[in-house]
Design brief:
By secondary structure, the protein is α+β, with helices and mostly antiparallel strands. The protein has 3 domains: 32 residues, no CATH class; 56 residues; 55 residues, no CATH class. The longest helix has 21 residues. β2 and β3 form a beta hairpin. Helix content is 41%, strand content 16%. The strands form 2 sheets. A 3-stranded antiparallel beta sheet has the order 1-2-3, with no helix packed on it. The chain has a two-stranded antiparallel sheet with strand order 4-5. It contains 6 helices and 5 strands, in the order βββαααααββα. α2 packs across α3 and α4 crosses α5.
Length: 179
């Protein structure tokens, strides 16, 4: 039935072009989306970028955007389903800003639920924002983000505040004594 098949991966970005030559001499041409290793070779990168911009403008979080892209038939670069991390990576690469959970650029010292922002926790403890990030990384503070790139919401009990303030005082005193 088939006399020859010709394949070309380079003709169209992200697609394999194939030509089938049938025994009768008739030919048919087809385009098939191929799995690519990077978004640079993605079949419809402009449409993907536009869709992410639109969904981001609707204040969707990265995981929500990923779910919508999957429902709409988009496939991530390596042929798998989109995840929030893929969307985060593309938004970062393309300079698409993170949706703010409070709708403004500056975070409040405390969120409506009583949790602290990074700046709020730093002010409450008498440390720098970088120290708060260090405390989060070391497990001295517990916090959460709705998604990567979103503001932190840090739970601080009165007991924790007291303990961490004492820690800061001891650290400052020991540095002063060492000098």
């Amino acid at each position: 039935m088939i006399r020859e098949v010709v394949l070309d991966q380079k003709r169209t970005r992200g697609q394999v072009w194939l030509k089938i030559v049938w025994q009768t001499g008739a030919t048919s041409e087809h385009h098939v989306q191929r799995r690519v290793q990077t978004y640079r070779d993605y079949i419809d990168i402009d449409r993907l970028r536009q869709r992410i911009v639109e969904l981001n403008a609707e204040h969707k979080m990265d995981a929500e955007i990923a779910a919508i892209l999957n429902q709409e038939g988009f496939v991530a670069a390596r042929g798998c389903a989109f995840k929030g991390e893929n969307v985060w990576l593309l938004r970062t690469r393309w300079g698409i800003p993170t949706v703010k959970i409070n709708g403004v650029d500056k975070n409040p010292m405390r969120w409506p639920d009583g949790s602290f922002s990074i700046q709020g926790a730093a002010a409450e403890l008498g440390v720098t924002p970088q120290t708060v990030f260090d405390y989060l990384a070391r497990g001295l503070l517990a916090g959460r983000q709705l998604a990567k790139g979103q503001p932190w919401q840090i739970e601080l009990s009165d007991d924790q505040i007291r303990q961490l303030r004492n820690r800061v005082r001891r650290t400052k005193r020991s540095k002063k004594e060492a000098s």
